[in-house]
Amino acid sequence: MSRGTRCGGQAPGVDSQVYPTQLLVNLRVVKPSELDEWLPEAWQKRQAALPPIA
């Protein structure tokens, strides 16, 4: 098991519905050089930087 992941392979604090949905929707347009940005930890940091939804 790698550092920062749980047995299920999901990073702590990553929404188990939103993350895979966004990944599947966007994966077809993601360039191979951008795949690291879609790792759970990087995705979570991007989500935290977004303004809250009103």
Description:
The protein contains 2 helices and no strands. It is mainly alpha-helical and 54 residues long. It has a domain at 18-49.
Number of strands: 0
Radius of gyration: 12 Å
Compressed to H and E, one letter per element, the order equals HH
Regions with little confidence, pLDDT below 50 for 5+ residues? 1-7
Strand content: under 5%
Anisotropy-based shape? globular
Biggest beta sheet summary: none
Mean pLDDT: 79
End-to-end Cα distance, whole Å, is 37 Å
Q: DSSP helix count?
A: 2
Structural class determined from secondary elements: mainly alpha
Would you kindly provide a brief summary of this structure?
The chain is mostly helical and 54 residues long.
Topology:
Blueprint: H1 18-26, H2 40-49
Key traits:
54 residues; 2 helices
